[in-house]
Design brief:
By secondary structure, this protein is mostly helical. It has one domain. It has a two-stranded antiparallel ribbon with strand order 1-2. Helix 1 crosses helix 3, helix 4 runs antiparallel to helix 5 and helix 6 packs antiparallel against helix 7. The chain is globular and about 50 Å long.
Length: 259
């Protein structure tokens, strides 16, 4: 939810448009079903699944940083890797380590705020329109990965601990996103702050939708095949990347909003 002026230095990440948010929700839903496929259906467990997806994420981030310009498929592959790694990491912390959903979400919220604070202290801005140097990209992907992990914990907490279930949790996060959209169009609140709020909230929305699709009936899900659900969502995501207009964001220059 950031606005960029037409002139400036091209960013390494996509311009934030309606298509961006649609792809983001698909990617986060895929991250949930894909992570569950490996850790549960394939019985890898949370630790081994986390190791696998973090390794893939590190490779993709390295490729993303090494690239000289914005590549849609590389960018969205990295986003999927971050959200899948976030799924398994959050599940490992919440369940295997016994921190619990509320504890995990609280710890991760502090981590996200710390990462964004360090980024701001170092660069003077956390706007995604400025992602065009290796150092800023490193901050960007750190914040992205932590926010994806936070979103998983938030989604599980809302669906399970509050008793709302997956559809109820999805409705809460969907309503919160509508509020953020209303603030964007009706107020002058920082567009950068609203972007990060929306980015974080789309993750638990995808997590609750993904869980609704593949969790057992007795847990409130549809009990669909995790691999099949992941494949269908992946096809929709690839089609969206190919068909939806995408362009790199633009560094708006010295007069840009700084926070």
């Amino acid at each position: 939810m950031t606005r960029a002026e037409p002139r400036g230095v091209a960013s390494k990440v996509p311009a934030v448009t309606a298509g961006f948010w649609l792809l983001k929700i698909l990617a986060t839903t895929l991250g949930e079903t894909g992570g569950d496929t490996v850790t549960m259906t394939m019985n890898w467990g949370y630790l081994a699944g986390s190791a696998l997806f973090v390794a893939v994420l590190v490779v993709l981030i390295a490729l993303q940083i090494a690239a000289r310009r914005f590549h849609p498929f590389l960018y969205w592959a990295t986003i999927v890797a971050s959200t899948t790694a976030g799924t398994t990491l959050a599940d490992f912390a919440d369940r295997s380590l016994g921190i619990g959903y509320a504890g995990g979400a609280s710890l991760l919220l502090v981590s996200v705020m710390a990462a964004l604070g360090l980024w701001y202290r170092t660069e003077g801005t956390i706007s995604v329109d400025t992602v065009n140097t290796p150092r800023v990209e490193a901050f960007y992907w750190l914040a992205i990965t932590l926010s994806q992990t936070l979103g998983t914990a938030l989604g599980d907490w809302m669906a399970d601990d509050t008793g709302l279930g997956y559809l109820g949790g999805a409705a809460v996060f969907g309503a919160a996103l509508l509020v953020v959209a209303g603030l964007y169009f009706r107020t002058r609140i920082s567009r950068v702050a609203l972007f990060w709020a929306a980015f974080i909230l789309t993750r638990p929305l995808g997590a609750t939708v993904g869980d609704f699709l593949d969790k057992p009936h007795e847990h409130g899900g549809l009990a669909l095949s995790r691999p099949l659900a992941s494949l269908v969502i992946a096809v929709l995501l690839v089609a969206g990347i190919a068909l939806l207009p995408q362009r790199p964001g633009v560094h708006p220059g010295p007069n840009a909003e700084k926070a």
